[in-house]
Amino acid sequence: MANTALEAGNAPIFRAGTSDAEIEAAALKALTRRKYVVLAWQIGILAAILGLWQLASDLHWIDPFFYSSPYGIALRLWEWITEGTESGSLWYHLGVTMEEALIGFVIGSVTGVLVGVALGRNKLASDILSIYIKAINSIPRVVLAPIFVMIMGLGLPSKVALAFIMVFFVVFANAFQGVREADRNMIANARILGASNWQVTRNVILPSAMSWIFASLHVSFSFAIIGAIVGEFVGSLAGIGYLISIAKGTYDAAGLYAAIILVMVVTLGAEYVMTLIENHITRWRPQQSLDTH
């Protein structure tokens, strides 16, 4: 049916008699167009920022010694990739940081979910332990780095411990709140049908809290990276934090920004992987309606 779908602004408007297939096709077209518009704006803003930064550096509006330039940072990254750093291969340092962050992330996430669900399901235990959890959570995480390094040394355990602490409380808080926000009517219906506590937790509580848990996992890996890097910055023999510490000590601005870009790329890649995993696990959820505004 020709001319059955018109567009007003970004949102498609459909005439009477439009088939479901035509509506779906028009909605998909509008969604695709929106994605390209968003991508074009993102690339344009990034290009403008980098271009202005390079121009300001070339014309000495800013001091290149302190602020470097996109070209200088790209050269340093290429040097690290092709020739390595003065203290070893870039991939070795990146691997060390990733190992510390991944171990801390996995242990912190699993522990946070288990403790959050357990305390969310046990009101008495949560009331007893809440004061201790709040007290520990009130400690700034970065001040724990020198303590862990002093107790556990410069190796892997101290960095994993800090990454664990950074992740645990984020995941715990969301898992706990997700359990508390579970639909009480569904829980009551499950109990009426004879479900045990474990069946209620597995089939009602956990699916309900899954959105809360994944929301915390999306941000907690970046916290694990931060924990590992802060630990390396305080004291280590390898890792991205170690490269940042060396660059700081030698006033290598390009090296500092290059290390920051590496962290950004790794974190965004982990965010993408986490989104894929979430979409796969939560396929049962209804798809969100098209929003083109």
Cα-based radius of gyration, to the nearest Å:
25 Å
Instruction: Report the principal-axis shape.
Output: flat
- What is the count of structural domains? 2
Biggest sheet character: 2 strands, antiparallel
Give the strand tally. Answer: 2
Query: How do the strands of the widest beta sheet line up side by side?
Result: 1-2
| CATH fold category name of the largest domain | MetI-like fold
Residue windows where pLDDT falls under 50 for at least 5 positions: 1-9, 288-293
**Helicity range:** over 70%
Instruction: Provide the succession of SSEs.
Output: EEHHHHHHHHHHH
CATH superfamily of the largest domain: MetI-like
- How many DSSP helices? 11
What distance lies between the first and last C-alpha atoms, to the nearest angstrom?
26 Å
Entry keywords:
MetI-like_sf, transmembrane, MetI-like, ABC transporter permease subunit, 2 domains, mainly alpha, MetI-like fold, single chain, 293 residues, disordered C terminus, membrane, two-stranded antiparallel ribbon
Q: What is the topological layout?
A:
Layout: E1 5-8, E2 11-14, H1 20-58, H2 64-67, H3 70-83, H4 90-121, H5 123-137, H6 144-152, H7 156-180, H8 184-192, H9 197-234, H10 240-249, H11 253-281
Antiparallel strand pairs: 1-2
Helix pairs in contact: 3-11, 4-7, 4-9, 4-10, 6-7, 6-9, 7-9, 8-9, 9-10, 9-11, 10-11
Description:
This protein has 293 residues and is mostly helical. It has 2 domains: 20-62; 75-282, Orthogonal Bundle (MetI-like fold). The protein has 11 helices and 2 strands. The chain has a two-stranded antiparallel sheet with strand order 1-2. Helix 4 packs antiparallel against helix 9, helix 4 (90-121) crosses helix 10 (240-249) and helix 10 packs antiparallel against helix 11 (253-281). The longest helix has 39 residues, at 20-58. The two termini are 26 Å apart.
